[in-house]
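Good morning C.,

I know you're traveling, so I'll keep this short. The sequence:
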Amino acid sequence: MFRRSFNRFYTLWNFLPKNLFEQFRRIANFYFLIIFLVQVTVDTPTSPVTSGLPLFFVITVTAIKQGYEDWLRHRADNEVNKSTVYIIENAKRVRKESEKIKVGDVVEVQADETFPCDLILLSSCTSDGTCYVTTASLDGESNCKTHYAVRDTIALCTAESIDTLRAAIECEQPQPDLYKFVGRINIYSNSLEAVARSLGPENLLLKGATLKNTKKIYGVAVYTGMETKMALNYQGKSQKRSAVEKSINAFLIVYLFILLAKAAVCTTLKYVWQSTPYNDEPWYNQKTQKERETLKVLKMFTDFLSFMVLFNFIIPVSMYVTVEMQKFLGSFFISWDKDFYDEEINEGALVNTSDLNEELGQVDYIFTDKTGTLTENSMEFIECCIDGHKYKGVAPETDGLSQTDGPLTYFDKADKNREELFLRALCLCHTVEVKTSDAVDGPPESAELTYMSSSPDEIALVKGAKKYGFTFVGIRNGHMRVENQRKEIEVYELLHTLNFDSVRRRMSVIVKTQAGDILLFCKGADSAVFPRVQNHEIELTKAHVERNAMDGYRTLCVAFKEISPDDYERINRQLIEAKMALQDREEKMEKVFDDIETNMNLIGATAVEDKLQDQAAETIEALHAAGLKVWVLTGDKMETAKSTCYACRLFQTSTELLELTTKTIEESERKEDRLHELLIEYRKKLLHDFPKSTRSLKKAWTEHQEYGLIIDGSTLSLILNSSQDSSSNNYKSIFLQICMKCTAVLCCRMAPLQKAQIVRMVKNLKGSPITLSIGDGANDVSMILESHVGIGIKGKEGRQAARNSDYAVPKFKHLKKLLLAHGHLYYVRIAHLVQYFFYKPLYDAAYLTMYNICFTSLPILAYSLLEQHINIDTLASDPRLYMKISDNAMLQLGPFLYWTFLAAFEGTVFFFGTYFLFQTSSLEENAKVYGNWTFGTIVFTVLVFTVTLKLALDTRFWTWINHFVIWGSLAFYVFFSFFWGGIIWPFLKQQRMYFVFAQMLSSVSTWLAIVLLIFISLFPEILLIVLKNVRRRSARNPNLELPMLLSYKHIDSGYS
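The tokens, ready to paste straight into the viewer:
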């Protein structure tokens, strides 16, 4: 079963039809195709070249750009599809391409290689059949996880021995949940009966994960191609369209109706005028016999089409050429921005799709991954507390090292035995592995130990214990070895590990000392440990934990208890029975764990810091100030994610948290009833604090209690996939109402596909808000593809996210400038460009063609690339300015009508001003009379100068390029007019423009008329600019009043 290409939108065979279909979905392209066909088939006033050539140019340029971008994605896919893997066939290693792996193939994977499909681990180079794996590209966790082979296949660690294995694997149908797998392997030997062993997620190696610190493993392929868990979590790629493009289509429809109306009115007036015989058939223009015999209805229809062709330049096809060039060339400014350059990876920003530049200025919701995006995934042990005493930064033997959270008379410092017991607990209660070193047999005295674990917290705690003199040396033959402060090796037999799970929120180990004592050490969240220890032990430690939590640290409480031999026999029997169960194994083990972890004694607590990325907190604060809603979607545990949200200031200390998690739901026997109760309760609470009449939700956040929502993956599944007894749509509706009223939302334990579901749910809200997703791993690809704009972080977890994204940046902090500065400017520029093209409304075929291509296109292109109506540093430092352009403010009905009426006013001035000028029969000293072509040339000259000078008035950021193209295009117009009318062109049938321009400018009256008409046309705009400047100077708070465009929104909360 082959791996399909994930990232491509086109193939070689469907590129032409699919690309043409996508391009002709644009109303302007489709319209000009129809016009071109009409010009070819019907006798029209203009040549088919005038619409066919620009259309062909637009289609070709766009196809080349999109084809090149897709080819880059195809090349990246091929790197994976064609990668080499080794299959064991007939006791030999056979080289194959990864796309040719079939279910049942035994695959050999070497250290640091990525698993090509989902494999069941059969054996490894280690004697105990374990291997270490990082799943950073799947769930964001970059620490090593331990996976196990079933004990019957551990010894099969060569190609020859693995080939002798005869077994059958039964497993569930492919499903996207990364954390669940149920299967069974039946191993056949010489005996008649097969040996059956259960298979779980600890035996499954997922495609996309990487083998670490293990030289070699053998695994059998169970899911391949599109059935792997990674593929099932992939969101299909679709063509993204910006809000500006949708606005363009809406404007085009309006102008199309105007065009149809104009053509209909003109056709009607033509036949009204021709109703008198003399006008219908004058003596100098007699009809042919064929024209007389033509049906009148058909003649009216062809006349209607001719008028449509005559007026078709009201819809500017060249706008799409300019927009495509603006997007393509504008994207280089992101790549060239030195602020996006990261010295650590020696790279800057990358633009994969230039079609969405302006969408960066319209974002409403940001969905961000946590690990590797907000954090560096680097844990550091900060401090601990033992019996209420705080230990920070120095070894416990030193005098004066501790401080008390309570009264000084309570403790001088913790008892020495309690200190050692606490540190032993940190060294023993974990699943950390030590990287083996063949050269070292005993404990290394000077060599640095390398710790590996599925949880970065555990490594930080083990290193913290080492800092205080207790070193975990490793585990050998089921015995854990610890070096104490006296450099003595203590050996503990590991009897059982009670693994961490999100419901219990704690983990424990049962160990046996050399003296024969059996101890249970437990660590977990304070809410999971405090109810299971003695009440009098809680108070002092609780104060320490609460203070650490407010500081944004991740806290764990540590407890222990002694187990008598008789109790251990019972516990051991219960644990073995639960582990061997093939059905309801998790529930049975959870019950046994719950019985064991009771009546413990609290020793202390720890505080670990998950280092945030540089300026992550400041970036989130700026995004909030810009009116953006930030949601964190992570596959990590709730406690970890919650701590990070506090640290990065997504949650404030005053924020009241509303939880919809497995823990809160499982308080009731019937989960859906409890979920419904919580949803109703939270909605009532929020509606009480947020009245419906609130004008601005952001303003309401500052006036009322702030709320944050926390939800996990399993609860989200309940909401989205409710049973028939309850209304799924009702759950979803209430859930969304709650989300909208919360200042921040945290979604934890999310599968990749669930992240995409969340994004899709918000995308489909009323008003269709613009969404942006940002992440750094393959687990973020689905939400990156689902959102309107996808940002990939060029992080440590591979480049899957960066390859599938629309834009890639090295760090999360770069999002601030990308949106607030680049996004703002891109939107303002392209909005002005679009309105300008509809505003500059035409005449001789050569002039019609040159008007949009040469006379007026270069100035607006330069404006749309270089304009900074507000300084870029000001935009980045004042996030409130982002709200001024939100909700597509500059392309709403108001600004559109303003530009349309401005064009209508100026068109009226051009035509009737020149018309009244022509009331004088002679404009020249020699009494020559001007004709239609002179009339048209005057109008056209005024038009070119007016629309170009209008752009000069709008320009606030002048560069030499602006000066060159604005004044150069006017000079070129004058030169072209002299040149085009000064030569008799042999290829033209009619010389209608011969010497017209030169003759026209020989009249002083014409010069005066042109200058006067330009001034009258621009006077309203000049008056508006003067009034704005007067108003700005008289404003109460001039520092906040920056130059603003006419179509900016007025935001009370932004400048209150």
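Safe travels,
E.
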